[in-house]
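#struct-queue
[09:14] JT: dropping the first one here, sequence first, then the structure tokens:
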Amino acid sequence: MNIGFEAKRVFHNRTGLGNYSRDVVRILSSHFPENNYYLYNPRPSGLYPKVASPNNVHEVLPRTKFDRFFKNLWRQKRVQCEFRHDKIDVFHGLSGEVPAITKKSVKVVVTVHDLIFIRYPKFYSRFDRVVHKLKVKKACNRANVVIAVSEQTRKDVVDFLHISPEKVRVIYQGCMDVFRRTYGQNEVEQTRIKFKLPPCFMLSVGTVEERKNILTVVKAIQGSDKHLAIVGGETSYKHVVKAYIAQHEMENQVHFLDNVSSTELAMLYQSACLMIYPSLFEGFGIPIIESLYMKTPVVTSKDGCFNEAGGPGALYVDPQNIEEIREAVTSLMENRELHDKLALQGYEYVQRFNDTYIAHELMQVYKSLS
């Protein structure tokens, strides 16, 4: 079988959607090496994913000067000329969009991660809301199968985009292999020391934006001896959080960590007393899975997709209730028996999000279309 992927984010996105896209290609190419996997990339990139043997993974760039210049046109329409050349059987849009495909023999799959821009429009500009909705709606209508990364996303696709429930299949995400290892205590300790963190700290992972709601956690630990380490990209909301920290003299209590590698992040998960993820809404919540694989329990939000990711390895709170967050954090940091119980249950639960499960679920979808 020849399988094509919309690969812009495989090559040009270093975080969430890029990690998901690279993982899908890596997992499929290693579990099903008999197939060929074509990555349609609109422009060259120094970020080349080491996803698998080059024998079955092929990067495809625009071949003509015209297509290289009009790379977006190539990506959205003219790329299907490459499908004929590569004899593509199934094309998979990995991030909520697919090109206009007129060839009936090419079956189409699209992954939808979330519809936050519809649920929480205040977090997006009007232009972005319109563009995102147009892209994902067209992609879902064109696709033979829509993959949702959680039951919550599946429900949103059906309710907001009016896609037939029979067309939408839930296949959970996994996480990068670096988060499924156990690291030596000495190197874990050296990483903690490098970032100047105390022996017991909370870890927050994710872009520091309003939807992630980290300011509520800062308020919850205000006046206590608890420490919070934050790993996440810069946004205007981060300045709001920093202003609050400065105003209340919490600079020695809240730590923003920069230039953290994936391996260092894994070791920070392992050394943290807990991971806190009070997001208002997510498509799934990969940091929850990463933390549970590292045997670190989680405090996260009630409702939505969060219990799908966290299972019995988390305490669930109202993300806007400061007192609930404070109590949950205190329980995990001061009750070792509860901490260890959740860590063990979470680690057992998270094994369901492994490479083998994802590979076979995806391949079952592809084969059902052939």
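[09:21] JT: and here's the second one, same format:
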Amino acid sequence: MLVTGGGGFLGQAIVRRLSEKGERVCSFSRRSHPQLIRMGTEQIQGDLSDARAVLRACEGKQVVYHTAAKAGVWGRFEDFYRTNVLGTRNVIAACKAAGVQRLIYTSSPSVIFDGSDMEGVDESAPYPRHFHSAYPRTKAMAEMEVVAAAGEGLCTVILRPHLIWGPGDPHFAPRIIARAKRIRRVGDGNNRVDTIYIDNAADAHLLAAERLATRPELSGRIYFISQDDPIPVWDMVDAILASAGLPPISGSVSPTVAYLAGGILEIAYKTLRLKGEPPMTRFLARELATAHWFDIRAARRDLGYDPRVSTAEGLRRLAAWLQNDYRRPHRPA
């Protein structure tokens, strides 16, 4: 088994689950990760943009879990394209050349986000005419490459997890905690969103590979995966803050103000060539003010996916990690 991005949050969870099942696992990423060394995982260093390195990593593998990606709401399109599109293209080519049997690709629900509410949306929803950020645009392009590969004989499944969180999270929860004093609600706070606990996300990936082995007719299909428990986005933010022993968010701004602020900050960062990413962008403003929850009946039916860790239990585990294992002070987001 090969996991691209095996040192990442999701990648490590998949590596751990595969190892627990007795599978021989290899990770492909740009650097070595101490956590994987402790798990006894073979590691291959390389960049997704290096076709030869990707081919070497895929040789002798039966299944590839392609989780590696460049994520974020800000940055140059070229950088996202190189990793998310060209990188995925290299993975597909390597799988074909090396005789890999199955490819499980990690995508994102943001590929269908058009700036409006998404409530109970299923896999039939089309890509938008216009993307508000390079990340969803390039992930959508990569999805199309993976679907096309299925038509050319490679068995593939695409999964769309939304807001992965849990113990060990290096991004979502830590960023909320680090920005706790500066965060303001966008809108009335009633817009519901889907999330997915890390163990459930890993389970879904293993299930996809297992089902694809016995049901090749599933190849090329796309599945939303989540807790199947939509929650108001700001309730989730407050729950994460409470897990860290912090008070809930108190202030708020209107979606219009947040959107205008995002536009102004984008211009400032581009014009002044400021480092890092703006604290608000137009894409982020729309995401925070709209609903994002999805129909996962297809994943239940075809993959046998059922979130075994509830949101309440996941928050309990997150709180334990934050209190016992997560080291402060937090790095600035």
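[09:30] RK: nice, looked through the second one.
[09:31] RK: The first helix runs from residue 9 to 20.
[09:31] JT: good to know. The first strand starts at residue 2 and ends at 4.
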